UniProtKB/TrEMBL annotation:
Origin superkingdom: Bacteria
Protein name from the UniProt record: TetR/AcrR family transcriptional regulator
Xref: Pfam families: TetR_C_1, TetR_N
Listed InterPro entries: Homeodomain-like_sf, HTH-type_TetR-like_transc_reg, HTH_TetR, Repressor_TetR_C, Tet_transcr_reg_TetR-rel_C_sf
UniProt DNA-binding region: 45-64
GO molecular function per UniProt: DNA-binding transcription factor activity; transcription cis-regulatory region binding
Keyword DNA-binding appears in the UniProt entry: yes
């Protein structure tokens, strides 16, 4: 029996003895991600992953201890999608480049932001991203704790953007309907001015996100 408190990456992928392994963690992880992409996190269960793989749920326990392991593996697997370029020496620009790739991964996997916020995971692939961020911050005067906090905040900020965008996708009118009602009364001139600014803006969502990230990261790195 393995220790549930030990990260899955510190446990052998296959038992030293017993039946020959028919699956790999990578296959199991890919199946779990497929299920989550299709039906959200609530659809991810040992039973559903087994059905996706055409096997019995009990057999999966030879590879993972349960759903928590699946979620950790899923989060870490998405980090392999990032293509990290060598640091240029411009810290804010390099961190924004990382953030844009994380956001793209979250757009492909709408369940990912929730997990990034509620159960941050540092497996092999996520550690590679952390190492890249540390390389970007090599000349930053902050200590290791400060740099780790910048990494955590980067993920949290991008996840928050992604959650908000997903929540309002296809519902822009719904999102501002009450604001328009308030503006029409004339009692909140600042709200009216805000809506006028939004209506006149020609910035795309990506532009606004990058501008906000740039401003936030510039402040963090001071």
């Amino acid at each position: 029996m393995t220790d549930d408190t030990e990260p899955i990456w510190l446990r052998p992928e296959r038992a030293a003895t017993g039946r020959r392994a028919e699956r790999s963690r990578a296959e199991i992880t890919a199946a779990a991600i497929t299920i989550a992409d299709r039906g959200g996190l609530t659809a991810v269960s040992m039973r559903n992953v087994a059905l996706e793989l055409g096997t019995g749920a009990a057999s999966l326990y030879r590879y993972v201890n349960g759903r928590d392991d699946l979620l950790d593996l899923m989060v870490d697997a998405t980090a392999t999608e990032l293509r990290l370029e060598p640091p240029t020496g411009e810290q804010v620009r390099d961190l924004v480049a990382v953030a844009k790739q994380i956001h793209a991964s979250m757009a492909r996997h709408p369940w990912l932001p929730e997990l990034m916020l509620t159960r941050p995971t540092l497996g092999p692939s996520a550690v590679a991203v952390l190492d890249h961020v540390l390389a970007v911050l090599a000349d930053h005067p902050g200590d290791g704790q400060a740099k780790l906090e910048i990494f955590a905040l980067l993920n949290a900020i991008v996840a928050t953007f992604a959650i908000n965008e997903h929540a309002t996708a296809g519902r822009p009118e719904h999102a501002v309907a009450y604001l328009r009602h308030v503006a029409a009364t004339g009692r909140r001139p600042r709200i009216t001015a805000l809506l006028n600014d939004l209506a006149a803006s020609d910035h795309l969502p990506d532009d606004r996100r990058v501008a906000a990230l740039t401003a936030i990261l510039t402040g963090l790195l001071r």
